[in-house]
Amino acid sequence: MSLASISSPPLSVIRAEPATERPALWSRLAHSHIAALTTDDAPARAVVTGVAGSGKSSVLRHVRRALQARGRAITRVTDGADLSAAQPDDVLLVDDAHRLDAEALEAVLHRLDDPACEVVVACRPWPRSAPLQLLVRRLQQERPTIVLDRLSAHDVAAWLAAHQRALPPGRVEALLTLCGGVPWLVVEALHLDDEVALADEQESLRAVSDALSAIIAHRLRTIDPEVRDGVELICLLEGAPTGWPDDPADTVVAAAHAEGLLLMDGTPAPVVREAVQATVSPDRLLHLLSLAPEHTVADTVAARVREPRLADRLLRRADSLIAEQPERALALFALAADAGADAATAALGRARAAWALGSLDAVGVELDRAARAGTPAPAEATDLAAALWSARGLTERSHAIHRAHPPTAPRTAAASVAVAFAVGDGEAARESAMPTPQRVPSTLDVASELLVAGLQSTLDGDGSAGLGDLVRAAEMHTASGSAEAVPELPAVIAATAALQLGEPDVAATVLADAVRGGHGGAWAHDRLQLWSAWVAMQRERPHEAEAARARVRAAVRELSTRDRIVSDAVAVGVARRFGDAAALATAWRGARESLLRVRFDLFILLPLTELTVTAARLGEGDRIADHFDRAVALTDHLGSPALWSTALYWAGVQRGILSNDPESLKPHARRLLSAAARSRTAATMAQAGRVWTDVLAGRVDPDAVESAASQLASIGLAWDGARLAGHGAGRTDDRRVAARLLACARQLHPREDTAAEPTTDEGAAATGPALSAREQDVAQLVLQGKTYAEIGAAIFISPRTAEHHIARIRQRLGATSRSDLLDKLRGGLAAPGDSPSPLPPGAVP
Hints:
disordered N terminus, Rossmann fold, two-stranded antiparallel sheet, 6 domains
């Protein structure tokens, strides 16, 4: 049987209806301008502009028929046409004028010099050569441009009515949104009768989108390759690229808009975006990613295209964003897993990104996932797991992890040594060696080597030999830009070492440089701010301390266990030095809860010392006794290095003084004496301890007290020095000695106003007759119900002087009784809770 013998059904021929019977889908305004062009008596001069497929040629056909019906001769001009055959009275209809060369455009312009000549030009909005731009401007002077642009629901409704069709208004709006109002897309969609008429709107839109995908993909394949790249990049990538090779972005957008594939603002219609994302091939996707390496493929594409090269690209991109954009990195690691990346690698990446965000619980979840999937990078997972347990306040587990997985890189070795110091493993701390580098050392490698050298140097003598290396390690770590997880930040280690060497200014500088340089990445911000708050507190700057804590609260991140204890210790320290008993009690209640969740290590012993002294002050020493004893044992295991242990011994002495328990302070006093031979800090503390003991026994030598107090201030313990002087003043019967020591206390621990002093007028308005600054301090304490003795202890004056101040205040305010005085003070001074308290330091001695 031959093919010719096979019968076939007759072809059904559909004859195109005349344009007059099948109205084009133009906007209402375009219809109005076209009608005026074809019916009024003025010469037919106009410009028709629109993107590809918007109906420019149909407008010219309509004009031709209308004018021919009126007996006009028509000459149609297209690309390559010869204008010499056109008669002077002919109406020129120029289609695709953007394709004409300069000579043809000049010929058309020349005809416009004749006022009776009629010319109708159709062109795209881009490209516009200089002659075409001039031609368009000339014609626009004759009548408004006929713009075939985005369609409205009214335009579609009119078209449907002309075709005796109907769609619900909601369906029309949904179609217009899907197609972005682009004329050619809307026309194609409306011709999909069966798809558009589906009962379910979502199903209908999906069917239309699927049907248009092939048409859009075909159009993309036929346009300029660079324009195609631009359209696809915008549709595929998260964030539009800012430019393309050898072609400015605005030119590409203009060309793509002229092709009807982008809207005027450079965004694609939803159906175009969906078509590109649904039809892109892996090879095409990788080509596009090579053009815009700073961008990443959209979620919808990554979830569909499982391609190893794409997955690798996403992993590398996510890795590069961890430090600066951890949220974005977290999402990209998830996309990489969807695209086929190794599950363990992706989970480990998500754990690193979660660390950068400070989300410790998420870090733990992802590390568990990586472990179940079979971690391909055990060293990296080891570092992260060890840092996680340190942040959770369980540094012993970090040490166990490092001992189970010996370090192979300088960074891991430095972390291992830091953890050994933190838990008091003296043998590991002293004997750990850096691995031999297999390449040229990086900045981070150098930082790690300096950190190990500095830490090990702190174990000998007074430890000051290691401070330089620790400071340089912090600087190099900042310079490296590393945001990787570490058990403790080099800047914090350097700062705490400086503080315990009596160098608070050095500590402040180290931390300020670290914050400014982004030391450790985003996750380190809170910790650096909290330690900055600690240093500010120790330097007698409570407002700086509170401002730093406020910046941490503003970050709205959940603090780690170790960060929480530092924050609570700062709150307690500020309240003890600058607040009243109520503020101290409130701060202490917050700290008590944190004590249940942390085991103190070497690098958070300073917060422990503050909490130890406060617990003794409040009669709750038992709550922290175990923590303190373990801390002493920790430093003993390190060989009792002076740098790391003297602050702990000093806290033991202070605890004994506040608890009125001389026997408990003796072991710590002996340790200070033992360390005094090799440590200036220990010697200063030991001497102050002897003087304090004499003061408590009633032996007040003003010269010795002043000298000891000043020496304490010189090593960053001004508050302790002021307390020593205050205690001396309270235990002498010599009024001149008491006044001298109280003046010393005020000098070491001066008032720091919480706000600018009011002007004289403002002060008078607030309190009636102006009170001096000291009288306002006393007045605030009177309102709190304090006695003469309590007022004197709070602001380092004698009870008798406090009595004199109150008498002068009563006289100035004209108060006739104590109750009258209180009423006048309440009316003239802000209540203690209404504004930042102007109380001077020392309210809780």
